[in-house]
Amino acid sequence: MVGRKNEITELTRLFNSNESEFVAVYGRRRVGKTFLVRETFADRFAFHHTGLPNATKRQQLSHFRSSLATFGLAKAVPKNWFDAFASLREIISRSSLRRKVVFIDELPWMDTAKSDFLTALQAFWNEWASARKDVMLIVCGSAAAWMVKNLFRNRGGLHNRVTARIYLKPFTLGECEELAVERGLSMSRKDIAECYMALGGIPYYWRYLARGMSLAQNLDRICFAIDAPLRGEFNDLYASLFGNASSYKNVVEALGRKKAGMSRIELLDVLGIEATGRLSETLETLEASGFIRSYRSYGAKKKNTVYQLIDNFTLFHFRFLDTPPTDEHFWSVTIASPAQAVWRGLAFERLCLQHLPQIRRALGVGSVHVEAYGWVFRGNETYPKGVQIDLVLDRADNVVNICEMKYSANAFAIDKAYDEDLDRKTATFAGVTGIKKALHLTLVTTSGLLQNQYSSRVQSVVSLDELFG
């Protein structure tokens, strides 16, 4: 299996526990949750079941009965979920396995309207399974809103019953490189980075890449062809994750219009809605699912949180797929266009933000406490021109790194105009914040820094290769 070492270690630790464990594995659609659990336990389950999408209570119970029969319990379709879990108890009690691993996949789909599913699950765990020492209940779900609300923030019988949460993140650049090698794809690191900028680190999407084709040809085939498998993925993605998909899509569409993100107050104004707890819940769920990130501007109070859309595929969809081009070879024929160049610059900045641990290691501060911020300054009388800095690293060793992220086909060259812009940025930042720490200008770039009369301004350079570490 590519990657997932920490997750496998955690699942193994829980398997070897001397107590019953209730484990929730969650993450966005296509990230590999089911694959992780199946590969870790090699299908050595006391019971395994997968919920059905868009099914009635009766259909869910009938399907559950089929799973019961697969594991040796042939009975009529359960009348309700209490009967269904009673049959599950019987299967577990009969099992000769030392550790009874029960894997229920796509759990949120099983919770249909007025089904009492959650109440029955609560009774199964609280009154029976948790009292034993040998049950490992693993539940998975792509519907992050449901998982957060009903398992992690449950105020009823399932409050604090989940003993372990495993959030499955998208692959890093390094893991995507491993996947490409495993699949026999010949890709340069720039190809891998650009593919990541379009598709993110979602293993399922990467499995569409075909050998013997350039990256541009592959993106045409899987995103822009009439029958492209990812052409309608945006709507499917949000529908599968969130019960009220439209409200979540409205938020990400609003955030997608502003590169640096928006505060909650700005979002309320753009969306034209009243201030209620619903927006906070939506933002929390989107962040838990990895679609957005929250950050504070350097020096700002904690309540001044900014929310930024960070999901690569969502942003790629908004820019190129929302109104699909008619040319099936769109990516190949526009590869040198200004539109793609602008997209690469912005997407590379997101890629860097998604690889902060690698940037820290490259700077040699992996063991130093570091807080990451952005910084947006609108201007004042002393400093009339506004400044935006996408990444500020405030280090405990008395240094602050101002990070500039630049995508470049060749070694990046600082010219006179950019040198003056950097001078203005750093002077404004120092003057407005009153910073007392040493200020280091850091360049994160694809191909290094060209040495010239302006390059000495940069204190440190992080290359694309180091982001693969």
Describe this structure in words.
The protein has four domains: 5-167, 3-Layer(aba) Sandwich (Rossmann fold), CATH 3.40.50.300; 173-231 and 324-349, no CATH class; 235-316, Arc Repressor Mutant, subunit A (Orthogonal Bundle); 357-467, Trna Endonuclease, Chain: A, domain 1. The chain has helices at 5-15, 33-41, 57-70, 81-94, 117-127, 144-152, 173-182, 189-199, 203-206, 215-224, 233-241, 245-255, 264-271, 277-288, 312-321, 330-333, 338-353, 356-362, 416-433, 464-467; strands at residues 21-26, 47-50, 100-105, 135-141, 164-167, 262-263, 292-296, 305-309, 370-377, 387-395, 399-406, 438-445, 460-463. It is globular. It is α/β, with parallel strands linked by helices and 469 residues long. Helix 7 crosses helix 8 (189-199), helix 8 crosses helix 17 (338-353) and helix 11 (233-241) packs across helix 12 (245-255). A five-stranded parallel sheet has the order 2-3-4-1-5, sandwiched between helices. Strands 9-10-11-12-13 form a five-stranded mixed sheet, with helices on both faces.
Which structural traits does this protein have?
469 residues; alpha/beta; Rossmann fold; Arc Repressor Mutant, subunit A; 5-stranded parallel β-sheet; 5-stranded mixed β-sheet
